[in-house]
Specification:
Layout (H helix, E strand, L loop, with lengths): L19 E7 L4 E6 L5 H4 L2 E6 L6 E10 L6 E5 L5 H5 L5 E2 L1
Antiparallel strand pairs: 1-2, 1-6, 2-5, 3-4, 3-6, 4-5
Length: about 100
């Protein structure tokens, strides 16, 4: 692979696009509300690897476990691996989904 291959570049140096913002905790079990900044809902509903940027830190790899749209709101409720409580979810408020 060449030096310009994206797989060779550390995630903190990639040009990752912001696709959502974590705006609030949802419930008591660690779900987070995401304000989408993308027209692709599968970014918030399809399980798999994602990136978060928390308060200007380098991007952090996270695993999206599940996500669902919240009826009547332009928001999604998502569950991330390792986030099991409201307190942990509240600590992520303001983070950017990349």
């Amino acid at each position: 692979m060449s030096a310009s291959d994206p797989q060779d570049v550390p995630p903190s140096e990639l040009q990752l696009l912001q696709v959502g913002r974590l705006v609030a905790a949802q419930g008591l079990n660690g779900e987070v509300r995401v304000l989408p900044l993308s027209d692709f809902p599968e970014r918030f509903t399809r399980p798999g690897p994602r990136w978060l940027r928390v308060r200007g830190e380098p991007p952090l790899a996270v695993e999206l476990i599940a996500g669902r749209p919240l009826p009547g709101k332009n928001l999604y409720a998502v569950r991330l691996a390792g986030i099991e409580s409201r307190l942990a979810a509240e600590a992520l408020v303001g983070a950017h989904f990349l």
